[in-house]
Amino acid sequence: MRIFCVLSAYLLDLIFGDPPSLPHPVKGIGWLINKLEDPFRSMIKNERLSGTAFASVIIILTWGITFAINAAAYSFNDYLGIAVSVIIIYTSLSIKDLSVESLAVFNALKEGDLNKARTSLSKIVGRDTAGLDEREIIRAAVETAAENIVDGIISPLFYAFLGGAPLAMAYKAVNTLDSMAGYRNKKYLNFGWAGAKIDDIANFIPARISVIFLVLASWINGYNPVKTWNIIARDRRKHPSPNSGLPEAAVAGALGVRLGGLNYYNSIASQKPYIGDDVNPLDKSHIKESIRIAYVTSGLFVTTISILWWLISRGGFL
Question: For residue range 284-299, what is the model confidence (pLDDT) as tens digits?
Fold first, then answer.
């Protein structure tokens, strides 16, 4: 039944994305993070210790609340339980939204409206976007699309297959903690340390599994899979994140572009190592190509895991 729930959630996200009119669980997780941060800082003065306790409570509470809601729905009616599971897993995915937001940047560039492109880009990146030229806007959009192949697609699907709706939502809590408190600045360097490390651990296996499907996706999309693999092997460790470098290197290798370089975060410069080779100048079409790679990667992953799950459940490997 879990495989049906995950596949249904995946299809819902492909078709609808996140309906803006409906309450989103991630907003609830964000609210919880904001409410509990100050109390934990006050209770435990050691920032690393308080941050570790804080992150643990957020993740456990998220899993527990989701498990309770799911169990209550199943106890009332199996069909209601399935529906609730599907909806929860559906909200953990961001395949369609990644496409919509990235295409908004592409369309603004196509219209020649750099201000509009910067505004659209600011919705999906953490870096400063004011003043970015067309090339830097494209680079930011491609990098974000690549990184989100793991964070927004493969990882939540992986945990949904592994532990259903509760584990998928617990992963979203980990991801939200990292995005809200995982900064390497004075305020969060120690307090957000645990959240950032847990995020690294949670994405470690999905990021490495994604490599198989990213290489296949590059081949299906007409790119050279050998070049894709070579860039992954060479540049995967150049990214500050132990996981984001894998999908970013894969996309850079497939497209034949160079990613990385100078970014600004709250007006503070951050120089990141270059990933990929500058074979093809960055072009707005590369935004669409990176989205296409994301779609094919997710489809291959879901199909493969579903087949393996079905074979195992039927004793196909015995």
Answer: 999 999 999 999 999 9
Asked if the model's pLDDT at residue 316 lies above 70, the reply is no
User: Any idea which residue has 């729930």 for tokens?
Assistant: 5
Q: How far is the C-alpha of 232 from the C-alpha of 259, rounded, in Å? A: 13
Alpha-carbon distance 152 to 112, whole Å?
29
Spatial distance between the Cα atoms of 267 and 256, rounded to a whole number of angstroms: 30
Residue 102 pLDDT: 94
Map out the domains of the chain as residue ranges.
2-313
- How far apart CA 233 and CA 15 sit, in angstroms, is 34
Mean pLDDT value of segment 104-114: 95
Per-residue pLDDT of 60-79, as tens digits, reads 999 999 999 999 999 999 99
Q: Say how far apart CA 76 and CA 261 lie, in whole Å.
A: 54
pLDDT the model gives residue 318: 42
Residue pLDDT, tens place only, 21-57: 667 888 899 999 999 999 999 999 999 999 999 999 9
For residues 74 and 80, the answer to whether their CB atoms sit within 8 Å is yes
Pair of tokens at residue 278: 């500058």
- State the Cα–Cα distance between residues 107 and 111, nearest whole angstrom: 6
Round to whole Å and give the CA distance between 267 and 271: 13
Tokens standing for residue 214 = 């990213």
Asked whether 117 and 262 are in contact (CB, 8 A), the reply is no
